[in-house]
Amino acid sequence: MEPIHLQTIAQWLNKTVLEDAIVQNVTTDSRKAGEHSLFVAIKGEHFDGNAFIDEVLKTSAGAIGTNPAFCTHPRAICVEDAVLALGTLAREYRSLFSMPVVGVTGSVGKTTTKELIWAVLSQKYKTLKTEGNHNNEIGLPQTLLSLDKTYEAAVIEMGMSGLGEIEYLSQITRPSMGVITTIGVSHLEYLKTRENILKAKMEITAGMRAGAPLFLNADNDLLSTVSDCSQAVIFYGIESDKAQIRAQNIQEEPGGMRFDICYQGNRANAFVPGVGLHFVYNALAAYGVGRHCGLSDEECLKGLSAYKPSGMRQNMRVVGDITVVEDCYNSSPDSVKAALTTLAGLHVKGRKIAVLGDMLELGSMSEQGHRESGRLAASLKLDALFLFGEQSAYTLQEAKLGGLKDVFYFADKQSLAQALKAYQRPGDAVWLKASRSMKLEEISKQLYGESIK
To answer: Is there a smaller number of Cβ atoms within 10 Å at the N or the C end of the chain?
Structure first.
């Protein structure tokens, strides 16, 4: 963060302070508040940051809080809503920079796409990116507030659970271009229809200027219908005739996907170190962003090949001659379909084993989504399916009806881990996939040890 006067921050919030100070970082964690920190006191379910203001101000530059009783210090700023104040602060700070800022959202693949865009842009620019799950109303402003004059670009991920959330994040971020990866069925519990999900994701345009590039997946049934948009829509894809950026001659190779990217009469051969067609789609979006940010073909292709998996998102490794794919960060019918299809196509000596936990936040679509996963596992002729979670009982039923013989259901992860340990053999591939709160990585850690992040 560039040094900012506390008085300037107060003015951004339409407030005043009696004492000035220099702020060089903003934090919501009182334990990380140093000499030049601005502490923003967030009130959560289990703690109230306001209680730490007096202590923090003994050593830090200032604080923002909502409780007047704790905001009597001359370097304290009292506001009605600390989260909104954090967003306002980030919006005003963001306006100090004119660099390319890419906003990324979508039902599936937004984090992988964000990482691929970062890998591409980093070939030419020092690029800031969203870290971890900082894609919400608290984490995103903190990401923007870590910008400084050494950065030349940024790629910002935007998550949501309901209408209006991405609009708010986009107005803070002010993206110079946007990417929407897919419109799936995640968040149906709250938004009820996929059309509402499309509406929510299109809110990314709220902070974009008219005519700014918006990259959309042409092979997604809903995104392909976008037409009455004030942005310059650029479609990418594999099948659709609408795709201006297209992948052809797609082949799976050891450790990744190789394909040709066709764009504006040019053909470039690309490799991305991740298996499955979903990696091809995400790479097309990253390539398009790179080209529109002034990178050459060679720089874009080098960036795609430099991609590394983030956290527990399709982290592939070999442990004792067993190929393990730890894909435990999130799950939806779309991402499970991608995972099972990719598993079925893996080139391994042994069997292909899927370990699935529940997909959450599907609302009325939950039973249907889990049943579809079971039918798909059977139709792909996977060798075995290990299941955990209440909703996964539907997956079990459909997999058995589809003729998959080795289908096992467990009431707890410990039993599943023990059974999987006894079942697997050298040469097998094991793919673990579930919603984050199912904590399926506990099975991976128990059987295969800690993964390298």
So the answer is: C
